[in-house]
Amino acid sequence: MSKRFKQQVKQLRKTSQLVSTNEQSKISNQTKENVRKFGFLMRRALDQGKIPAALKNASQMLDGLRTSALSPKNYYDLYMQVSDELRYLEFFLQEDIKSGKSASKLYKEVQFIEAIVPRLYLMITTGSVLIKSKEVETQDVLSDLIEMCKGVQHPTRGLFLRHYLSQMTKDKLPDKGSEYSTSNDQESLSNSIDFTIKNFVEMNKLWVRIAHQKTPGNLTKKEKEIAQKNLDIERKELKILVGTNLVRLSQLEIVTLEVYTEKVLPLLLEQINECGDPIAQEYLMEVIIQVFSDDYHISTLPSILQTISKLAEGVNIKQIMISLINRLINYSESNSDDINDKEQIFTIFSKGIGLITKERKNLPVKDLLSILNSLIQLALQLNPKQIDYIDRVLRFCYNSASESGSLSRDIIKEINNLLTTPLTKYKNVNVLLEFENYSPLIELLPYSDRRKIALKIIENVLQNSTYIRTSEKVKKLFEYVKILVQDEKDMPSESEEDEYQKTLFLAEQDAVCRLVHLLKSKDLIESFKILQVLAQKFGNSGERRIKHTVSPLVFSSLLLSFKIRDYIEDNEEEQYPLSPKKIFEFVYKIVTSLTPLFPLVSLKLLLQCAQASDKCGFEAICYEFMTKAILAYEEHVVVSKVRFEMITIISSTLQTLRIFDEENYSTLANHAGGHSSKLMVVNDQARAVCLCSYLFWIEDEEEDDDSEEDEEEDEDKEKIYFKDTKRLQGCISRAIRVAGSLMESASMFQLLFEILNVCLYFLRYEIEQINADYVNTLLELIHRKIEENNTNLSELVEPQSFNFYKSTIKHIKYCQSQEETEDLFKQINISISLDDLK
Amino acid sequence: MVLILLIGDIHIPQRSFGIPEQFKKLLVPGKIKHVLCTGNLTSKESLEYLKTLASEVHVVKGDFDDENLNFPETKTIQLENFKFGLCHGHQIVPWGDQKSLQVLQRKMDVDILVTGHTHEFTAFQLENKLFINPGTVTGAYSGFNDEIEPSFVLMDVKGSKIITYVYQLKDGDVSVEKITYTKPSEND
């Protein structure tokens, strides 16, 4: 080392002050250069077998570590370089001892080195060789070294020196089954624990003191702040040196659960508590939680939580608590059976968190909620059936959050998590419905978050196909998701909604509609109660929502009416308090009240109701539904195209009904026919009128199925539900007339072909008016119409229409060839038609 | 070989909360080439779902489909050697009547007529034409048939031969039935 440099180092050591960055890298480079130089000399001396010279070189090399000028990071780099060299030295000395040299003598020799830092590094190196030689008791060497290390009190120098001690002794600590333990009794083994803890305590103190190292005096205030910040960062980088001791402890076999509980942990916690340094406390708690095993934590939870509650102000308690809880969650996931007292764990945590909130008034609400969220996860993991535990935590959350005034985005996020965690864990909303404090917590959230959570709840029900089977539970569910079925004070007005919100609204109503089908009991009376709850909720939800929700409500009701009918049929002796009639009265009120608002939806639903009441055998009610449907048509349907669609649906529905007496049926059929003939568009009119022909010849298929052999004389009478062949023919004739009046020939032919097929349909019923002659007249009409145009049919109509006619004629031919239809069809003369089709 | 899915009368959300899970597991994307849907979806989501199953999705309008969805009343599709006709069926009176369906088949000039509306699987042949109703895939409520089993149909079309697989859900179990149909030559 040059004289100038030596002096410089001396100067710096005196002031114990860090120097500026530029200066530091200069010193660092020079020192490293010296380490390289003396390291080289040391190796050469060793290779030549000159041990004293080598030790001298080593001591000179180690002089570099005496500096105070370097930042922890720069010092660390230097240390790494030196320790590489020392490893070489140790290896060489060890070989030397094997060849008969005395290790004790060597250990004594290095103690004559003047400077303390080089002396202690070399004592540790030779001490390690001495332990390996087994010339003396391991514990004697260890206690000697740990005592001697007290001589260095400079934070950085001391910390690295002790780290070197720790590294060099890690494989030599007396432990169960270790080759360096001379006796196996607990007391002598516990020396390893004492040694490690002592080293840990001292290292921690030194580490904490780094924070108080002075920064260069010539800096401005701002520069000083930056320097301090950098120091903190570099200090954090050194934390692993301290933490290694705890890892060592956790690896010792002799640290049994008992030893840990009685001795190790109290000492560690005492040190954490005493040091009062936030960075150290936070880090060390984290290390304890991570390195010791879970069952150790379970046994010592109260004292850990006690310590956490007393940690310094700047410590991130949230992170520590979550780490601790997460460890237990992971543990109980795989070792659930090993945990004896699960409730105890929860209680200890509850108390611990209570204590923390008491001791730390400044704990941010968002952090508290975050901790509680982990606690809920733990409770769900330990015993998901203990609903009251989770509910209590939710209560606590509610209280904490509601006391904090307006909620920050962080707190809102935590509340969302608190609500979602049990939802996704249980996958069964019924459990959620047992909570008392779930909906109050939802209510704390702002509008858009309430919407999101409500949709999430329903989506969860749908994804898991969870049935909700009582009206009380349904009521409770609608407390949770009420935002989807009612206007809220804080909602934006409809005109403010953007595209996204409009889509969202539809998605929400869609979800509510789907939900309805999962709200049903096996008990039909209860099911009806559920529907009444829904009717009440939906009824007050406003037009915009009712438009969507009325349909599933009505369909669920109609399904229930069938179930009630079946139940009563199967249990005739029982006086059942509910009749399908009640259901029909219930839906009648709902649907008819909506007719002016949503005529088309309402009309279609009325027809559905008519069908159901027909099946359940309620004539008057069915008649009422049909009347209301026709009235809805008359009063509210104005668009021509829609009128056609609606009247055909009315007619085709009426065609399926079998409950009416002749008079009622006839009245309804007349109305359907009358409205059909009033349609404005001729095409529509012809088709609708033609369709009405089916209303006047209706076979009762069900009766037919049941007829017994001995009732044969009645069979004919029973088979027919309604017939009025005159009006049937009237419909077809009118359709032909209307079609024939069409100016546009392609449409006209298409219609005539359709009507022809209807005639062929009725042919099998041997109706007086619709017979082969009637068909022949129609075929002639078609022929005449073609002739009038002076061209071929294929020129007049689309190919598909042409093929339609062709296959109709082919069908006639086919029927003429079949035994069962031969008689009815043989009189039809298709020869002119076959000509037309050429 | 072309695999065709016949599906319809979905009625989500008005009459059902969803397609049964047992069916969803069977209906995986990538195998089906064409979807023929008989209508009454009755939401955009159902259409989106069908589009995940195959690139070619043909849909006709059911009596409960929203006007805005703009589906045609009928549609003809040529697949391999077959001309398929697709129609919901509420337009055909009496509903589900075989003779009336035959009229539609002639009108559309098709080999195979696919319709829905009755919520009941049916398949029959008349005068060498095939008629199929895949039923309702969700087991949706129907006013004229109160014992409804969810069902759909897969068709394996190869040249002039069709193998039809009918999937039905009975008491939570999926049953499969196989029907073979061969197109008669034109001379018949």
From TrEMBL, chain A:
InterPro entries: Vps35 (IPR005378), Vps35_C (IPR042491). It is found in: Membrane. It is a peripheral membrane protein. The keyword Protein transport applies. Keywords: Membrane, Protein transport, Transport. The keyword Protein transport applies. Plays a role in vesicular protein sorting. PANTHER family: VACUOLAR PROTEIN SORTING-ASSOCIATED PROTEIN 35 (PTHR11099:SF0), VACUOLAR SORTING PROTEIN 35 (PTHR11099). Belongs to the VPS35 family. This is Vacuolar protein sorting-associated protein 35.
UniProtKB/TrEMBL annotation, chain B:
It comes from the Eukaryota. Residues 3-158 form the Calcineurin-like phosphoesterase domain. Pfam families: Metallophos_2. One of its GO terms (biological process) is retrograde transport, endosome to Golgi. Transmembrane segments: none annotated. CDD domains: MPP_Vps29 (cd07394). GO terms for cellular component: cytoplasmic vesicle; cytosol; retromer complex. The keyword Protein transport applies. Keywords: Protein transport, Transport. InterPro entries: Calcineurin-like_PHP_lpxH, Metallo-depent_PP-like, Phosphodiesterase_MJ0936/Vps29, Vps29. Belongs to the VPS29 family. PANTHER family: VACUOLAR SORTING PROTEIN VPS29. This is Vacuolar protein sorting-associated protein 29. It comes from Anaeramoeba flamelloides.
